[in-house]
Amino acid sequence: MTQYGIQLYSVEQAAYGDPKGIIEKIASAGYKYVETAGFYNLAANDFKAIIDGAGLKVSGSHIGFDELEKDFAGIVNYLHTIECDNYIVPWANWNEEFFLNIERFNKYQPLLKKEGIILQFHNHSDEFEAVGPNKEVPIEVILKETDIKLEIDTYWAFVGGADPVKYITDHKDRINLIHLKDGSRSGEGCPLGRGEAPVLKVRDTALALGFTMVVENECYTDKCVAEAIECIDFLNANNK
Questions:
Q1: Which pTM does this prediction carry?
Q2: What are the counts of helices (DSSP H) followed by strands (DSSP E) for the chain?
Q3: Taking Cα atoms as reference points, which of 157, 156, 139, 158 lies closest to residue 148?
Q4: Distance (Å, rounded) from C-alpha 96 to C-alpha 133?
Q5: Could you give the 3-state DSSP secondary structure of residue 188?
Q6: Rounded distance, CA 212 to CA 22, Å?
Q7: CA distance 217 to 227
Q8: C-beta of residue 9 within 8 angstroms of C-beta of residue 216
Q9: What's the rounded Cα separation, in Å, for the pair 106 and 112?
Q10: Rounded CA gap, 148 and 210, in Å?
Q11: pLDDT tens digits, residue range 184-211?
Q12: CA distance 60 to 153
């Protein structure tokens, strides 16, 4: 059966109160990987024990540049402890820090590579729009002026006007991970199968290309765990 990961931001509303219990529920639902969005104030060994106990692996970690600049060695040690080799910058301010973002990518990519960690960037719709001082398209500049990998959030690419199936195919050499996500064209997220994004076409293409697929569902209510389970149930019900 096809394996899926989940971005833990999807269940953040519940997980901060009970990270062990929620991660165990995620594993029981059939997810095989987790992608972190914070570590619930847990020491690396304690977080690793929860992941191991649930029979999961860490496919990547969303961590901003600020944390890396404050404590590079500490972040690297944490990622090594939890056996995570994908450092994913989750967001960037392109209006005010366009050139600084590119400088940071080029500064930290070789430093992380020496530690066995791959620097990646997770897009939103902004990266497909002309922004910044010179009205350039950030995703195009990243591809041209850096060697980092892209974790393509296929839903936000869709909202930004790209064809996500074509995009991940055209840029397959720069991609290891993708986000499977759904929602309206206008930017309102929802569980997989309820929205307008071509989720199953993306899934089938990503599977053929050998990408690790990470589900993300933006939910800020007590329904977050139920919706995360709904997402993987939808994928499994629509397996080829």
A1: 0.97
A2: 11, 10
A3: 139
A4: 8
A5: coil
A6: 22
A7: 8
A8: yes
A9: 11
A10: 18
A11: 999 999 999 999 999 999 999 999 999 9
A12: 14
Q: Which two tokens stand for residue 63?
A: 């961590």
Helices (H), the chain: 12-15, 19-29, 44-53, 65-70, 72-81, 94-114, 138-145, 154-159, 164-170, 199-209, 224-237
CB crowding 179-206: b at 16 or more within 10 Å, else e: bbbbbeeeeebbbbbbbebbbbebbbbb
The predicted-structure confidence for 51-67, as pLDDT tens digits, reads as follows 999 999 999 999 999 99
- Which domains are present in the chain? 5-237 (3.20.20.150)
According to DSSP, residue 160 is labeled T
Rounded (10°) angle between helices 44-53 and 19-29: 30
Provide the token pair at 80: 């090594």
